[in-house]
Amino acid sequence: MNNLKITKTLQDYFFVLYVLAELGAREKTVKLSTKFLAEKLDLSQQTISRYLISLERIGWIRRTATREGSFIRITDLGDLQLRKVRAALNFIFERKPSPIIIEGTVFSGLGEGAYYVTREPYRKQFIEKLGFDPYPGTLNLKLTSEYDIQMRRELEVRSGIEIHGFSDANRTYGPVKCFLARVNGKEKGAVILALRTHYDSSVIEVIAPKHLRNVLGLKDGNRVRVEVFLEG
Amino acid sequence: MNNLKITKTLQDYFFVLYVLAELGAREKTVKLSTKFLAEKLDLSQQTISRYLISLERIGWIRRTATREGSFIRITDLGDLQLRKVRAALNFIFERKPSPIIIEGTVFSGLGEGAYYVTREPYRKQFIEKLGFDPYPGTLNLKLTSEYDIQMRRELEVRSGIEIHGFSDANRTYGPVKCFLARVNGKEKGAVILALRTHYDSSVIEVIAPKHLRNVLGLKDGNRVRVEVFLEG
DNA sequence: ATTACTACTTACCGAGTAG
DNA sequence: TCTACTCGGTAAGTAGTAA
Which of B63, B105, B145, B152 is deepest in the core (most CB within 10 A)? Predict the structure, then answer.
C-alpha cells in the first residue's frame, strides 16, 4: 500500500526516531545523552530533551532518564512509524510509473498522416516495435490547456520508442518517436512525435490499429483523453 | 552504507518531497495546487508556496508556477535525497542487530557454577544449542554502572537460547537461557541466566569452551567486556 | 481558479540555570 | 556530568490580499 498519512507528529519526530533506530534502539535499549542526539540532528540539547519527552508521551519510545544519560528503546508503535515510511518509500521506488494524461480536441489535418504512416519502412517498424499495424491515418488532437501543453513538452524530452528515418529515391523521411497509449480509456494506440522537425507544440498525433474516429465515434471538436505510457 | 547526514534542510523538506514523489513527480512533471499539497501535509497554502520556492532554490525540484497551478518535477538531486533516506531505512531494517556490550568486574563465586555446568542434561544442550562443550566453571562478573545493570535487565526480557530444566532422583534443575557472546573481543562464550529463580540482577555468569581466567589472564577485580549477541 | 507578497501572530528554539 | 525547567527573542506559519 501506498497511502502514508503524513501527520504533524510524523513530520516533527521522524528523524529523531530514525537516529535512534540507527543507534540500534529498535532492537535494544541504548544509552545516549541528549547532547549527543542534539549534535546528530543539528538541534540544541534542550530541544532534544523536549522531543524525547514528547516521543515518550505519544508512546513511540520508552525511556529512563538518569544522571548518567538516557536509556531509550523504540516501542512497537514507534517502530511501526519507521516501517510505514520505509514501506511507502519502497513502494514509490518500485511501482511502475503512472501514465501521463493528455486531453485534446479532435480536428482534421490535411490527410498527410495517412501518407506517412503507410510508408513501408515506417510501417515495418511500427509493427515490430509497437506491436500493431497502424490504420492508415492519424488522429489529430489540439491541446488547449496549459497543463496539456506542458505534458506534451514532457514527451518531447523523453526518449520513447524510436522509429528510424530513411530515404527513398525522392526524399528523406526523418526519425520519429512513439509512446504507447490508451485512447479514451479503451483503444490501444500510440502517440507519435516527429523528432527533428519542429511541429506545433500544441498538437499531438495518435496512431492505432483501428480507425479511432469510427470505433470511438469521434467528430471534429470532440474531446479525447489519451493515457501515455512512459515505459513498456 | 548507513550514514545518513540529517541536515536541517532534509528535516524541513523531506516530507514535501515525499508527497511530490507519491504523486509521480519523480517520473514526470505533475500538476498540482499549493492548496492541495497543503492539505496533504497539514500546512497552509502559503507555507507550501514558500516551501516550493525554497525547494526550487536548493535545486530539489523544477517548477513552473501558473494561474492554473504548479507544474513540478523532482530533480535528480531531489530524487537522491529520497533515495538516501530509503537506503538508510532499508539498511537499518536489514542489518543484523549490533551486540549489547556489558562490562563487569571479575569475582569468585562459591564454585557451584562448575557443578551445574557439568550436569549431563545441561551439558548436552549446551553442546547442541551453543555449539561448544563448556569448561566446567563459570566466570562471574559484577556489574556496577547504571548502564550495565540496565543492559542485564534487557537480557532478562529477551528470549535467547533456551536450555530446558530437568529432574534427577534428588532434585529439580530449572530452565536456563543463554546468549552467545564474545569476551574481551576474543573468546567465544555465552552469558547464562537462570530463568525462574531470582538471581542478583547486578551479576552475570559467562560460560565458554575454554577456561577464560587462564586464557585471558584474568584475576579478581579485572574488568571484562562482554559482547552479547541477540540473534544467532 | 491559481501563486505569492506583506504583515502579523504564535509557538518553537535555545540560553540560562536548577536539581 | 547528566536532564529538563523557565522565559524571552525570533523564526516559522498563517491571514489577508493582490495579481
Answer: B152
